[in-house]
Amino acid sequence: MKKSPSVLASVINPSFVLSVAGMCLGAIRMLMMDVPSPTTQGESVELICSYELDEDKLYSVKWYKDDVEFYRYVPNDWPPGQFLPLQGVRLDLSKSGSQSVYLRHVDLNSAGTYRCEVSAEAPEFQTVAAEKKMVVFVLPTEGPKITGGVSKYRVGDTVYVNCTSSKSKPAATLRWFINDEMAKPEYVMEHSTTLHSDSLETSSLSLKFIVNEFHFRGGNMKLKCTATISRVYTMSNEELVFGTGLRQQTSGLQITENMSHVQSSSTTPAWTSTFWTVWLCLFFCITYKFISTGIERNLVDPFG
């Protein structure tokens, strides 16, 4: 079956051929886009946009944050790199160029979706783009705080303490530990996250349980609370509390009382017999010495 002239004409249309040739010979490709995330407030970061032009020539590289342009690199302009001011973006022009931009001292306003857009020159102006999200953390300035505890507990007492994280973004994940072992789920109670006016957050987690013998190690009990933000940050705070009136201690006193009872029920304690033995030996020694002295005196001077 032969194709009609109109169909053949559309297939071999010059613009179509040039377009296909341009795609095959002068393709522009995005190789890699890197946006450090998560990053922490105050850090400086480099955003990388790596591409390949083949036979094409670069027309422009444009950077956007949340669809708002903040930097463009046009080789034929002077200067080739231009910064368009945007909140949260502190660009270092001296370190930015055709394949990367350098942001100084990021903060919460720096968080968002960044897009790199690369365009080739005429006639095709072929364009490729890639985007990635940047998350910015604000880390706590100190560890979590433990409140509500007392210095001593007895078996049967109720432990009811609270752990509150310092302000951060996002709020820290809290965990309770008893003697370095994670507390049972039924012991903990999570409270709602508190949002502050500076957009930072604090979290709170309570620990409540009835004290049992196994909660003590050597008469003491260690309560520890940890605050974690992703894999970036972990801090902890702990309290060492002491046990009183424990059954282990009572058992020890009972052993002492039993030993005392055994000793008092004996009719001839060992120390009594020893005392009388020593006293009798001393008496006989003195008596013997006295008699011996008298005999010697009579032998030496029989007439006195």
From TrEMBL:
Gene3D superfamilies: Immunoglobulins
Keyword set, alphabetical order: Disulfide bond
Domain Ig-like: from-to ranges: 14-129, 144-236
The keyword Disulfide bond appears for this protein: yes
The name this protein goes by in its record: Ig-like domain-containing protein
SUPFAM superfamilies: Immunoglobulin (SSF48726)
Pfam families (alphabetical): C2-set_2 (PF08205), Ig_2 (PF13895)
Top-level lineage group: Eukaryota
Organism: Nephila pilipes
Keyword tRNA-binding: no
